[in-house]
Protein 1
Amino acid sequence: MYTQAMDTLREEGGDKPALRTAEEAQLQQRFDNRIDAGEFIEAKDWMPENYRKTLLRQISQHAHSEIVGMLPEGNWITRAPTLKRKAILLAKVQDEGGHGLYLYAAAETLGTSRDQMLDALHSGKAKYSSIFNYPTLTWADVGAIGWLVDGAAIMNQVPICRCSFAPYARAMVRICREESFHQRQGYDSLLVMMKEGTEAQRAMVQEAVNRWWWPCLMMFGPPDDQSPNSVQGMRWGIKRVSNDTLRQKFVDAAMQQAEVLGVTFPDPDLRWNEATGHWDYGAIDWSEFWRVVGGEGPCNRERLAARVRAWEEGEWVREAALAHARKFDLKEAA
Amino acid sequence: MSTENEWPLWEVFVRTKAGLDHKHCGSLHAADPKMALQMARDVYTRRQEGSSVWVVRSDQIVASDPSDKDMLFDPAEDKVYRHPTFYKLPDSVDHM
């Protein structure tokens, strides 16, 4: 999803050529050659400091997104309409937790600690995907998140399976494999309501789709001409496909799925373009995107507060488990 | 930010089914061996990916240095006689 990190990186520059020694220049050259040859970079290999920093930022924010992403859907676990839907939703939310853990582990190989990353999240220094700052008001939101939000996430994440940084790529392969059920279960849930539901349920689905459509398009990040860090990301093999290309791919796929489902998207400018072979869509309100990224979305405070509370209330458990393990170690040693 | 109270890191190895070897699949934090095993099950085998799990404290693994790669592995490069294809035998016995 959650690859907005490169786009919200406004203050930091790209790969500054601040090389000091001939040896470093040689290492940089060797690194560039490996990237050009399509080789993977492992955690212990030499890498430019900015490559490390950019990846650390992107992977940790991706991890935060998975963890914060458990909250909107978790909101409906106790109120799922059937036992089947409840079991599915539990499995999905557990997956998101697992995905967060894979990604934290990948980020740790770059030389940061789990606690440092969590501290950055809890203090508001690190961001997570803007999409999770929207509320889940009805049961149809759970289906819409699966279909549209996870659909956009998969579109975004599949190219990262070929990221030049191998630990990230390996985590993404595992995540993408697990994530495909997320989108299908969401669509399936909406389909049941549209085909077998009441008029009120169909209206509920349409209303949820109306709210999620635009925020989902924003998940791909700003337009290519306003995404200055994309070039460097492409050069490094961190980003493989541009924001606008992915967004278009998502719109094209979603249009067909919406037709089968029997819902529409809240955009009067959606039109099939014979010349390009794609669906044209209307202007995205980027001021809303930047507002939500900047902390002023509908649920930013609530989401962060929930994470901080979970961390603080779990502190005694973390301490007790460690104290118990240390006591056991001492006994073993004696 | 102090990290001394962070749970230690463990590497997880999973055997997907009997007859195959354990394969490294990732890492996790856990306070003790029992917790590491339980968490490895929850994090890495949610879809019956495993029939057996190993967990090893990451700080107990000794690894080669990537910068020693050439020194360690290049010497095998010119020893082509270690491969069966090096030996040209008459067609009639070449399936040997």
Protein 2
Amino acid sequence: MADTVAFYGVEVASRLMLGTAQYPSPAILTDAIKRSGSDILTVSLRRESTGGSGGHDFWSMIGRLGVRVLPNTAGCHSAKEAIVTAEMARDVFDTDWIKLEVIGHADTLQPDVFGLVDAARELVGQGFKVFPYTTDDLVVAEKLLAVGCEVLMPWGAPIGSGKGLNNRFGLKAMRAHFPGVPLVVDAGLGVPSHAADAMELGYDAVLLNTAVAKAGDPAGMAEAFALAVKAGRLAYLSGAMEARDMAVPSTPVFGQPFV
Amino acid sequence: MKIAVIGAGVMGLTAAHVCALRGAEVHLYERRPQIGRGCSWYAGGMLALWCEMESAEPLIGELGLESIAYWRMHFPHVVEKGSLVVAPPRDVSELKRFAHRTSHYEWIAREKMAELEPDLASRFETALYFGEEAHLDPRETLDLLRAKLVIDYGAIFHTDTLLSPENAEGDFVLDCRGYEARDVLPDLRGVKGEMLILRTTEVTLSRPVRLLHPRIPVYIVPRADHHFMVGATMIESGDRTRFSARSMVELLNAAYAVHPAFGEAEIVEMGTDVRPAFADNLPRIRRDGRILRLNGLYRHGYLGAPALARRAADIVFDGAVFPEVER
């Protein structure tokens, strides 16, 4: 049976989601997406939409890629702003999926978890399927689930920092605490081994943007991440050995003259 | 040889110039009352070939080298002082990343900075100095090109004239309308840019300065009479009318980060327009009978137009073929 993952009842094969910002050109973005095998792309609505005719050229190009679009509210600093952006995104992309970002701090881009819960409650009420970008705080996570989110997207590290999993303990606790909830590490991944790390912890998927968009060869890096995600996932399913402090020979050496 | 050029921005003017150099009789048609008032007007005018290679394709390097040679040959006001790339202390990793992707620079420290840009010496401990780069004032350049075309080559300008390339008279028609050519180039898209012109006597710069920042890379180009061009945003949008408050905040923040004196500067102008671009952000020449469509210069107008113009002239006069841009 294929090892798929489901978000709000929609099954996808790829556990790598990609953002679409900061690529050198739309053509390179297209190549990167093809090489990544991603089934879900996030698209930021905010900037492109600031003027009437908006970014329709760009959006229709994304539309032609034939993958599912997860619009996001990147850059929104209040619940209200995020709600308005989500409503706009629903019209533009004809989807009720929304990646909800409410930024609490302009410098660290840390989520404002209070505004996040408020916005999630309102959007779920309006029928949206909310993918909240949150911290690894379990209490916040519980509140997000309580208001109707069915996916959680905790950060690995601050957006764009490329630091990997800053708090493995917190992320492991989250996985253990919410065994049935799809969990996606979103933000802060820098290299493929970070993505493999998240998958080995049992995360269902990862979402990243900068690490691929700003690579020397974005398409090559996209494929590298795809392979790492597959490797990490397979490792998780296969049951990793426990680390220990002392050596254990893998073959008995006693009495073998040539070893 | 009679050539009609539609659109008098940097693409149309350089195309006209290169054809006139080869003896063509040139007519230029511009829909606006004045020449060069499209996105060429709002450009930074940085001939920053090596910096651009951070994210541009190798073709831009090839076209850029040829274009810089063109500007140097024909325009004595090209400023040969290189350019500087700086980053706030906590974003020094951005500077390292930029250095990995580029060449033809030197790492400089405070002493060299004090020599190049005394006003920035106390603000940035280290910087990348691209000594072979140059810059020009786009508006002055466009006017000079027009004057050269009229005085030296007797080119005829038809301003305030909306003419479709199909209806233009001539052996060849060069369609240089930029984003307006979407009627015939459906794969052309707009990338909106917003820029500011500030004026302050409290800070002096001799060369363009790029500020690297993970979210808002911005450059400041010194112009005559204490003016500074601060640009430019990059937004996937075909809208050329609205300058958003957010863009203003970002541009001013960046200028302020380069030097706090920009906080007291006068805002002389806010400009916004749309760069024409194809999906790979590379320029093209498309042939359509006697019409050649020169377009898609994206953010590389001054870095790409002369080289594209030369190719168009070689096509017109010699029947040459250029697979790298005829796509």
